Amino acid sequence: MAYYKKKETSARTKILDASWKLFLDQGYANTTINQIIEESGTSRGAFYHHFRGKEELLFQLASHYDSTYEDWLDNVPSDISPDQKLLRFSQYVMKGLETSRFVTLLPCLYGLEVMTEYGRPIINPDRKYYQIVLSIIKEGLESGCFQSELSPNELTEYYTILERGLTYDWLLKQRRYSLSQYAERIISAFVARITKR
């Protein structure tokens, strides 16, 4: 079963699927590029054509999660208010992280994102995750549901900082509590702060 959502058999997809399988089976640190090439049935040239190194494979998890967020957006009821939509999206994101088959890779992903010299996909504002949050916040401001002196981009930045911080804290504490339950309280307070009464 392909770990990457797109249904294609390109070398890039084979490499991603093989790497994520190996990362889950034996850990990121214990997986070599040679093993990924062998498992994927591709070549060293194909590997370096698509990826600069092993960490870039791990960073592609952001794309995996974003593809599930697109599914959520396609199925969200059109008649709910922006504040409820933002709360539901937060719960979907946090529950998705909490129950993901890739949850054991998240500490490594967050750690490498801090240390990398390459781009940081988790904080890339072009990600579908950021676009969804921004669109909900814009909808809330335009409809009068939200009220703030901050711009839509600033509100999106604050919201996403909260979710990243909550996730990082949960990982630091070795996932000893429910991320979705804890996040619900914090994100609800943020949404209540910007919701017009």
From TrEMBL:
<dbReference type="InterPro" id="IPR009057">
    <property type="entry name" value="Homeodomain-like_sf"/>
</dbReference>
<keyword id="KW-0238">DNA-binding</keyword>
<protein>
    <submittedName>
        <fullName>TetR/AcrR family transcriptional regulator</fullName>
    </submittedName>
</protein>
<dbReference type="InterPro" id="IPR036271">
    <property type="entry name" value="Tet_transcr_reg_TetR-rel_C_sf"/>
</dbReference>
<dbReference type="InterPro" id="IPR050624">
    <property type="entry name" value="HTH-type_Tx_Regulator"/>
</dbReference>
<feature type="domain" description="HTH tetR-type">
    <location>
        <begin position="9"/>
        <end position="69"/>
    </location>
</feature>
<dbReference type="InterPro" id="IPR001647">
    <property type="entry name" value="HTH_TetR"/>
</dbReference>
<dbReference type="Pfam" id="PF00440">
    <property type="entry name" value="TetR_N"/>
</dbReference>
<feature type="DNA-binding region" description="H-T-H motif">
    <location>
        <begin position="32"/>
        <end position="51"/>
    </location>
</feature>
